[in-house]
Amino acid sequence: MLAHIRPNQLFCTDKDREQSLRTLGMMLELSEKCYVFGKYFFIDAFDSEEYPFLLRKGFDLMGIGMDSENVGNILKGYIISGSYEGKELLDRIVIFEGIETIQKELPISVFWKG
Which whole number is the average pLDDT over 25-44? Predict the structure, then answer.
Protein backbone atom coordinates (compact mmCIF):
# COMPACT_ATOMS: atom_id res chain seq x y z
CA MET A 1 0.00 0.00 0.00
CA LEU A 2 2.76 2.44 0.82
CA ALA A 3 3.93 2.27 -2.80
CA HIS A 4 0.94 4.47 -3.68
CA ILE A 5 1.78 7.11 -1.07
CA ARG A 6 4.14 9.98 -1.73
CA PRO A 7 6.81 10.48 0.95
CA ASN A 8 5.69 14.06 1.65
CA GLN A 9 2.21 12.77 2.58
CA LEU A 10 3.65 11.12 5.69
CA PHE A 11 5.06 14.26 7.32
CA CYS A 12 3.54 14.85 10.77
CA THR A 13 4.28 17.24 13.58
CA ASP A 14 5.34 15.82 16.93
CA LYS A 15 1.92 16.81 18.30
CA ASP A 16 0.17 14.93 15.48
CA ARG A 17 2.25 11.81 16.11
CA GLU A 18 1.44 12.04 19.80
CA GLN A 19 -2.28 12.26 19.03
CA SER A 20 -2.00 9.30 16.67
CA LEU A 21 -0.78 7.24 19.61
CA ARG A 22 -4.40 7.30 20.83
CA THR A 23 -5.46 5.61 17.62
CA LEU A 24 -2.67 3.07 18.04
CA GLY A 25 -3.72 2.44 21.64
CA MET A 26 -7.33 1.96 20.56
CA MET A 27 -6.30 -0.54 17.88
CA LEU A 28 -4.00 -2.46 20.24
CA GLU A 29 -6.78 -2.72 22.82
CA LEU A 30 -9.33 -3.73 20.20
CA SER A 31 -6.96 -6.29 18.65
CA GLU A 32 -6.36 -7.85 22.04
CA LYS A 33 -10.09 -8.06 22.79
CA CYS A 34 -10.81 -9.58 19.39
CA TYR A 35 -8.03 -12.10 19.88
CA VAL A 36 -9.51 -13.14 23.24
CA PHE A 37 -13.25 -12.99 22.41
CA GLY A 38 -13.22 -13.46 18.63
CA LYS A 39 -13.54 -10.86 15.91
CA TYR A 40 -17.25 -11.41 15.35
CA PHE A 41 -18.01 -10.61 18.99
CA PHE A 42 -17.56 -6.87 18.29
CA ILE A 43 -19.11 -6.44 14.85
CA ASP A 44 -22.34 -4.83 16.07
CA ALA A 45 -20.45 -2.55 18.48
CA PHE A 46 -19.19 -0.34 15.66
CA ASP A 47 -22.48 1.11 14.43
CA SER A 48 -21.77 4.30 16.38
CA GLU A 49 -20.40 7.45 14.74
CA GLU A 50 -17.89 7.77 17.59
CA TYR A 51 -15.57 5.32 15.84
CA PRO A 52 -13.51 6.28 12.77
CA PHE A 53 -15.15 5.53 9.42
CA LEU A 54 -12.41 3.15 8.28
CA LEU A 55 -12.76 1.05 11.43
CA ARG A 56 -16.55 0.88 11.05
CA LYS A 57 -16.22 -0.03 7.37
CA GLY A 58 -13.71 -2.80 8.15
CA PHE A 59 -16.03 -4.38 10.70
CA ASP A 60 -19.03 -3.95 8.34
CA LEU A 61 -17.18 -5.86 5.63
CA MET A 62 -16.09 -8.59 8.03
CA GLY A 63 -19.67 -8.80 9.30
CA ILE A 64 -21.05 -9.63 5.86
CA GLY A 65 -18.51 -12.42 5.55
CA MET A 66 -16.10 -10.83 3.09
CA ASP A 67 -12.70 -12.53 2.95
CA SER A 68 -9.72 -10.74 4.46
CA GLU A 69 -8.00 -10.03 1.14
CA ASN A 70 -11.02 -8.17 -0.24
CA VAL A 71 -11.54 -6.28 3.02
CA GLY A 72 -7.91 -5.17 2.86
CA ASN A 73 -8.19 -4.12 -0.78
CA ILE A 74 -11.32 -2.07 -0.12
CA LEU A 75 -9.79 -0.33 2.90
CA LYS A 76 -6.62 0.40 0.91
CA GLY A 77 -8.79 1.92 -1.80
CA TYR A 78 -10.43 4.24 0.72
CA ILE A 79 -7.05 5.33 2.04
CA ILE A 80 -5.42 5.89 -1.34
CA SER A 81 -8.40 7.61 -2.97
CA GLY A 82 -8.76 10.00 -0.04
CA SER A 83 -5.40 11.68 -0.74
CA TYR A 84 -4.84 12.01 3.00
CA GLU A 85 -1.72 13.55 4.47
CA GLY A 86 -0.03 13.77 7.84
CA LYS A 87 -1.99 12.66 10.89
CA GLU A 88 -5.07 11.75 8.85
CA LEU A 89 -3.00 9.33 6.77
CA LEU A 90 -1.09 7.96 9.76
CA ASP A 91 -4.32 7.23 11.66
CA ARG A 92 -5.79 5.43 8.68
CA ILE A 93 -2.68 3.29 8.20
CA VAL A 94 -2.76 2.32 11.89
CA ILE A 95 -6.45 1.37 11.60
CA PHE A 96 -5.79 -0.57 8.40
CA GLU A 97 -2.96 -2.54 10.01
CA GLY A 98 -5.11 -3.17 13.08
CA ILE A 99 -7.98 -4.51 10.96
CA GLU A 100 -5.51 -6.79 9.15
CA THR A 101 -4.30 -8.09 12.52
CA ILE A 102 -7.85 -8.66 13.74
CA GLN A 103 -8.78 -10.55 10.57
CA LYS A 104 -5.77 -12.83 10.90
CA GLU A 105 -6.52 -13.28 14.62
CA LEU A 106 -2.90 -12.57 15.50
CA PRO A 107 -1.79 -11.98 19.08
CA ILE A 108 -0.74 -8.43 19.94
CA SER A 109 2.94 -9.33 20.20
CA VAL A 110 2.97 -9.92 16.44
CA PHE A 111 1.18 -6.62 15.70
CA TRP A 112 3.28 -4.55 18.09
CA LYS A 113 6.91 -4.93 17.08
CA GLY A 114 8.08 -1.91 19.10
Answer: 83
